[in-house]
Amino acid sequence: MANDIDGAPVARHGRGRRPADEVRADVLHTVGDLLLRRGLTGLTFECVARESGVSKTTLYKWWPSLGALALDGYFHGVQDTLAFPDTGDVRADVTTQLHQFLGLMTTTPAGRLLAELIGRSQTDPDLAREYRRLYSSGRRQLAADRFRIAQRAGQIRSEIDVRVVIDQLWGAMYHRLLVPDEPVNADFVDALIENVFAGITPARP
Amino acid sequence: MANDIDGAPVARHGRGRRPADEVRADVLHTVGDLLLRRGLTGLTFECVARESGVSKTTLYKWWPSLGALALDGYFHGVQDTLAFPDTGDVRADVTTQLHQFLGLMTTTPAGRLLAELIGRSQTDPDLAREYRRLYSSGRRQLAADRFRIAQRAGQIRSEIDVRVVIDQLWGAMYHRLLVPDEPVNADFVDALIENVFAGITPARP
Question: Where do the HTH tetR-type domain residues begin and end (chains A, B) (predicted)?
């Protein structure tokens, strides 16, 4: 219940129309929640309409496909868990964030969900485009923003293309997720960070 | 035409049975060649039987599925291109090999082929197992062998887990292949190598 400028309560719920942004945020919250509990299995427009109280017509208007709805919901569902802290120490912050990502991949259906979406997108150009538009490009941008702060602070060499570092940390995790020859675990995360921050060659004399 | 111990020519072709290993190698060569020219499209047991002159019964005996035949053929088809040189300088050798891999991915159907196989394997556990058994685990082993030589030569720190470095070079390339937010090109390859060999932080004073 919000107050208008005269201090009188303004009914936002139950009576009249709720603002579209608010309804949309509620739907995304519902979808993110469903995905993190149950994965893609059983996600349908019907069940999202039922759980969110929003008509299927409205859902179709905002999200033309189930893939788009799932990706948008997932992006919003993980944004708090995968936020980049800024304590002033980029290596510590990236370590925190990658361990959060590891937890999401290993203790929720998120790993399976992402693997299936990337898998299907290899033969479905529409899904591939939506995956990049609604999920991966946004996630890359957030990581790049944190690395550029670190470059300005002199913690990462200025000539480094931070977009490449993203593939060597998160991309390496996706690689083991998609082709599981080796496990995705805390030792792996720590080794990824050590290698790319410190380099694998002996210290210069 | 080989010679037996008395120096008399021994007919291996045309008359009698050829050794199974030789027939098998011929089939793999045929399949590797077909895949690098045309990709997975149109690859069938019928067409391999026709091009190699080996009966479908024999092909089915050796390769229970088209996926297994394709993966085995592809592994053999790329082994010369993707061989690891050993000039004594691991960074130079890895640079050579990664540029060969880049060429394969960008100028042949190999990139699309690998992306489709990894994609399908997300929802096909048999294919996933065959992919690892017949392709990716063998490729990882070859890279690890070259890095371990470098560790013994003091060119890579002895405490580095070289399996992780593999995900940060080849895995990072697969990541951009599968989720093409950013391009796979020569600059990317060179940056991957620079980052992981030298580290992204400023040189220690």
Answer: 21-81
Place of tokens 């800024």: A86
The architecture that CATH gives domain B2-76 is: Orthogonal Bundle (1.10)
For residue B121, list chain A residues with Cβ-Cβ distance below 8 A. 119, 179
Can you give the three-state secondary structure of B60-85, one letter per residue?
HHHCCCHHHHHHHHHHHHHCCCCCCC
Work out the pLDDT band at A2, boundaries 50, 70, 90: very low
**CATH no. for B85-198:** 1.10.357.10
What is the H or E stretch that residue B193 is in? Answer: helix B186-198
Residue in B17, B2, B11, B101 with CA at minimum distance from that of residue B58:
B17
What is the helix (H) or strand (E) element at residue B2, kind and residue range?
A: strand B2-3
**A169, A144, A190, A175: which is closest to B195 by C-alpha?**
A169
Distance from C-alpha of B63 to C-alpha of A43, rounded to nearest angstrom: 37
Hey, what are B200's tokens?
């992204």
Provide the shortest C-alpha distance from residue B44 to chain A (in Å): 19
**Minimal C-alpha gap between A46 and chain B (Å):** 24
Contacts across the A-B interface (CB distance below 8 Å): 161
**Residue B4 pLDDT > 70, yes or no?**
no
B9: helix, strand or coil: strand
Average pLDDT of B91-110?
Answer: 96
DSSP B204: P
Residue ranges of domains in chain A:
2-76, 85-198
